Amino acid sequence: MELQINNQKVQFDSDILSIKNMLDIHKPTHQKGIAVAVNQTVITRDNWATYYLNPSDNILIITATQGG
């Protein structure tokens, strides 16, 4: 499956992929402090394991940063 993640095409071996599966592959060590939106809708962390992605989905991964 090919997904659009942060405006870049990313290829995955699986055709059935939840947000959690995608993050385990795409960002395996950096899953704290992030938010995920699919087609401009934020998906809560509680739903990552059960929200399945489609090839046409546009995914935005936002990472929190500290500053001041």
Automatic annotation (TrEMBL):
Q: CDD domains given for it?
A: Ubl_ThiS (cd00565)
Q: Which Pfam family is one of those matched by this entry?
A: ThiS
Q: Which InterPro entries match?
A: Beta-grasp_dom_sf, Mopterin_synth/thiamin_S_b, Thi_S, ThiS/MoaD-like
> Which domain of life does the UniProt lineage start with?
Bacteria
Against Gene3D superfamilies, the record matches this protein to: 3.10.20.30
Q: What is this protein called?
A: Sulfur carrier protein
**Origin organism of this chain?**
Myroides phaeus
